[in-house]
Amino acid sequence: MLIVMKPQATEGDIRGVCEKIEALGYRAHPMPGAQRTAIGITGNQGALEAAEFESLAGVAEAIRVSKPYKLVSREVKNEDSLIRVGTGENAVTIGGRELTVIAGPCAIESREQAFAAAERVRRAGARLFRGGAFKPRTSPYSFQGLGKAGLEILAEVRREFGLAIVTETIDPENCDLVEQYADVLQIGARNMQNFSLLKRAGRSSKPVLLKRGMSATLEEFLMAAEYILSEGNYHVILCERGVRTFADHTRNTLDLSVIPAVKRLSHLPIIVDPSHGTGQRDKVTPLARAAVAVGADGLMIEVHPQPERALSDGCQSLYPDQFEALMEQVSAIAAVVGRTTAKSLPIFD
Ligand code: PEP
Ligand code: MN
After folding, report:
1. Which ligand has the shortest distance to the CA of 304?
2. pTM confidence score
3. Whole-number pLDDT of residue 305
4. Atom 4 (ligand 1) nearest CA
5. Which of 241, 251, 317 to mutate to test the pocket of ligand 1 (most atoms within 8 A of CB)?
């Protein structure tokens, strides 16, 4: 159920409704909007009585939410969510008019590799740096990431280059460590339905980038996000990264139709990862352009200073020059669809 407050409702009225909800043993999720605050209720098993809430001070109406997901739904919050990431000079807002580009290598391999990538992606206009320190690999014999040493390198990248850091957390215990370093916690495709990880991320103070599972329907994707919001973390960015189909000319099939579908149902921002979506370097830029054209809020792009030497995902990683070209092309498309891109930031002397 959703409690819609009157535009003139006071802080005290909102608190009163939340207290009533909590006293009944449920969880209250106040969602401030431009016109009025709405309060989502979760934790109830059966249907709730609207009249019980409509009599409270400041309440306009109590309405039933028809979708299985509640807090991620536009029924509960119609305005697009803006997710603020990083602090100080690293601060970025995701979901507004400006497109957000996250770029960097698949995995952090060394300080030299990370710095070389960061210098180039920043110069080309990326505002966030990506790179896994903990890698969920299909084979136990493949490079698993540098672990804590990789996180330390990411912290240095943030300091040196003024880029906010996106990095993956692979299980709830690992989250305790990763959240101390990351500006955004990434939950990978393989973990989209790791419910204990979703709940743990829902109790983090850091925003979460949730990647779509490789065979997840839209409803399953939104339900996974709902797990995070239901624990009180409303700062979720969705990421389409391709799904598995019969098509074998690419690694995955990038489902760009999910962008307008998500936009219709949810207020959460959604970005596109054409690197994992295609698995092939030459297809990354065309699909990045297409993603912006269909209304994605940003892109996640794998860039490596020497892709042929990468320890993971080299075939889909762009050379820095290619990333620069991608940024120029994407800026041209952005202008057509009423979006902007970050101006290149001057690099440190
Ligand atoms: C990644 O971003 O490097 C990654 C492992 O992505 P996904 O979870 O989408 O496969
Ligand atoms: Mn990768």
Report:
1. 2
2. 0.96
3. 98
4. 188
5. 241
